Structures are given as C-alpha cells and as structure tokens.
Amino acid sequence: MKERVQGEVSERKAGDALVKNAALTDHTDTTARQTHVLESSGQDGLVTRAPLPADEFLDVETIHIHAGIRSTHGQQNPHHHYPNPHFTGHQNSTYSLEETPPDRLKIQQELLDSLLQATSVTDGWEAYHTLTVMFPHRIHQLSEVPKIPQRHLHHLARLLASKKPRTRTLFLRLSAVLTMLHRSGYRIYLWEWNALIDCAGKRWRKCTLEDYKAAVEVFSKMTTPPSENQGDDENLAAEHNFWYVQPDIITYTTLLYIAGRSLDPGAIRHASNLLRASGLPPNCITHLSLLHYYTRTGQLSGVRSTLRKMREQGFEPGLDGINACIWAYGRNGHMDVVSTIYRVLRHNLQPESDLGEYDIEAAVKYLLDVEGIVIRDDIIPDEITYTSLIQTFSYHGQIMKALNIFVDMLSTPNREPKALVNQQAGEPSLYQPTLAAFRGIFLGFARHAQKSFPPRTAPGSLSERLRPVQENDWNLENLHQVFKAFINLPADVMPNERLIYWILVSFTKASGGDPGKLRKVFLQLEQRFGGGWGGRLAELRQNIFGNNGSGGQ
Prior knowledge:
Layout: H1 2-21, E1 34-38, E2 44-48, H2 56-67, H3 101-117, H4 121-134, H5 150-161, H6 168-183, H7 190-201, H8 209-223, H9 234-243, H10 249-262, H11 265-278, H12 284-288, H13 291-296, H14 300-312, H15 318-331, H16 335-349, H17 360-371, H18 383-395, H19 399-410, E3 421-422, E4 427-428, H20 435-448, H21 462-466, H22 476-487, H23 497-510, H24 515-529, H25 535-545
Antiparallel strand pairs: 1-2, 3-4
Helix pairs in contact: 2-6, 3-4, 5-6, 5-7, 6-7, 7-8, 7-10, 8-10, 10-11, 15-16, 15-18, 16-17, 18-19, 18-20, 20-23, 23-24
C-alpha cells in the first residue's frame, strides 16, 4: 500500500511537471511568467512557470514519451514499444535503404486515411502513434516537410475530447496532439483548449489543489496575449494571434467545477474571481458546478443559496440539478428531503390520488418554500436518480427503502434517449439492474449488516426478559436475495474487483465470518465471473480456503 501511494505521488509530480513543460506557446523569451493561484491557506500565491528547453523538438518528444509514443532514434524496430497489427507487414522495412519513396508514401497515406476515418480513440491513437514512430523526421522537423494535415489532428483531438472518463493518459495524449497542432503552425480551437483544461483537472480520481493549478496553467497558456516585446515583427505577432483564443463561459465553468472538486476554498474564490472579471454571465451549468463543492463540504446553506440564485436569474435546475440535490441532501443525512423529492418525481410518473394534509401539493410547496427546489411536472426519474437514491438510502441504513426503490426502477419503462425498445410491444423496455445499484446495496450490507441470532425460547434473567429484541433488516436472508439477483445478471455484465470484495465483506459481516458460507459464495462468484482476481481478493481467498484452493473438497 505504501509503495502504491508513493508511486501515485511520483506520477502526480511527473504529471504536474509535464503540464508546465507541455507548453503550446513559443518560449523564445526565457522570462518565466507567473500565474496567480490561491494557495490552500486562502492567500494569493505565485506559481512560477519555468521556461521550456530551447530545443522545441525535445519538448514534443518528452510529451510523446509520456503519452505512449517512444523515440525511434537508434532502434532497429520502432514498433517494439507499440505493435500495430494493421501494418505489421511494414515493420521490418521502416528504415530500409532499399525501400523506395513511393512505397513509404503509400504507407504514410494508409496511416493518414486510418487516422481520419477512425471512430474510436483506440483506432485513432494507434494510427497517430504509428505515424509518429515510422515518420518522425516528417513530423518534428522543418515546416516545409510534409506533416500530418490539420484536419486529421483535429479529428483525433475531437475523439480524445469526447472520451470519458478523463484520465492522466487521456490528458497526456490530448496534450501531445495539441502540441503537434501548434508546432505545425495550425490553429487550436476553443473547444480543444476547454477539453484540455477539463482533462488537466481530472487526471486523477481524487482532485487536489495541484490539479486545479494544472488547469489554470493550461488556461494561462490559452489566454496569454502576444508578447509586447516583439517589436515590428508582424509575422511573429500574426503567428501568436493564430492560436490565441478568448475564453467562453464553458472555460470558466470548467475551472469552477475543478476548483469545487478540489474542495479548496481558495481555489473556489480564485475561479469565481476569474469568472467575475471576465464579465460573462453564468449559465445553469455554472451554478450547478458549485453544488459538488457545497455537498462535499456539508454546506447545505450554499446549496440553497445556489438554487435561489438560479431561480432569480431564470434558471431551472432540471433533472441534472434535481439529481444533484438528491446527492447533496442525502450525503448530509437529510433523508426526509430526499424522500420528498423522490415522492414528487414518482408522482410525475405515476400520479398520486391521495388528498389531505400530506398530499402531493403540500410536498411540492415544502420543497419550493423551504428548500428552494423547483420540480416541474414533466421531470421524471432516470437511471441516475434511481441509482443515487438506492446508494443514499443504503448508506444511511434504510435497506427496505432502498430495495423498494430498486423494485420501482426495475418495473419502470426506460424512456431515456438511446434506451432499448421492446420490438414486439413497440414500447420502451424496462430499466435493467445495474452494477452501480448493486454496489450501493452491497456497500450498505458491508456497513450495517449484523449476524442474526435465534430468538430466545427460555426466559432468562429479568434484564434479559426486559431487553427489546433488535430486528435488523440487514440480515443474511435479505443479503442472499440480493446476491441471487446479482448472480443472474446478463452474461456480458462483469463487475470489477472492488465490487467482488465488498460482496465478500457483506457476507462476512452478515454470517459472522462463517467459513463455509464464505467458501460457497466465493466459488459461486468464481464460477459466474471467472475468478483469477489478485491483490486483496487473492489474500482473502487464501484466508477462506487455506492451502486447499479447491474449497476443501
């Protein structure tokens, strides 16, 4: 564990250094520029950006190495690091002296066609990678030498920008492509800058102040105007104006969201000040981007204030905002508000007919007057709604409520865009069980399950007779019912190792660590999902089965 944490810290430092060095601007002026970023203490600090090496080729080379492209200099087979099955016939002749130029041009054109026609990140990056490996001298050197056309690079950038989730690898690859665009003299569009800022702040699963600084570093490169020290060199100024773009509200909203994910008040203030200084009016997404910060920091007053501002500016939260409210109130233990939100959403789907003191109109009025939550009558739950509710109620120990919502979900037609349609009935298919929903329930069992004891039959002491019998719904019987449904998931659904681990923890707590029960559950999981897990699951299997890996048979 210690080595893994140290390794992640090292990767973070390397990634942060790369953000500073993967500049898309020309650093002939070696004076370091400074970007104001609020430190975690809340005071204004200065993050100094070091100048790049004078050799621009080394800069691009460094970015490509981190992004998965290795240098071919001095290698007999440049495909050693990344074999390309589509072009294996050319691998051994990459630098062959006997190869004629037309043959090499044909190979290059095939790769360019593959890049332009790619519909996935994998295919597009493979073609781009092979081009940079097989033809490095056509890419990194003089501008008059043929290079990758800009529409090919923009196409790959669009594929990368649409990829979710954001990862460090994705950030490095997009950095490499945008760097190639700039070094080739091509324009970098605003949407590409925005995507790079988004990737810079989401490189890691847990966002920190350093990630926000990385996003601001990209923002600084994007918004730095042409140098005032260029004299009368109009061509150089024109080149700088070619890539310089003006940020839009998406840019500032992205920075604000990353600042919120960092949970740093100084970052929030800094991003808010940038938006305020821009003079751009916030949109609905800008307001909603703050809800994550207020939710994680337990500031429900901030949630209510944001909802009030949205209402004053004519914005409605919509379903995305309602789902964010469910998570905000649920995470902070206000389950009464969560239940009321769900009741109104279900009423929009299946209207209630009950009238009286606690009718649906009273629930709608309470949400509006007290919490500032507006739910239009055309907003109905979606998969995210159901999943958030199941996870929230499970976390707070309300298993029956979570299971009832799960049943509601599985009995409701899925009317979301791109949902499957029942061809025979011509109607939307029902929602299917998801791994996220099961994960929420199993985490609830891991948190709340207790071993059930048989009821007392013979009277004991007076204190025992007066002690109330504690009934716990997080018991082994209910866990078996959930596990049975989980095992019967479609064959193409494969859980990750974390979910398998929490299932075993759930059975450990509910059974009181019964070895026989755990062996049976483990074998069922292996039979259904293939087994072969490593890490803590391998250790857990060793503890359950001992030296007899077959389960004691």
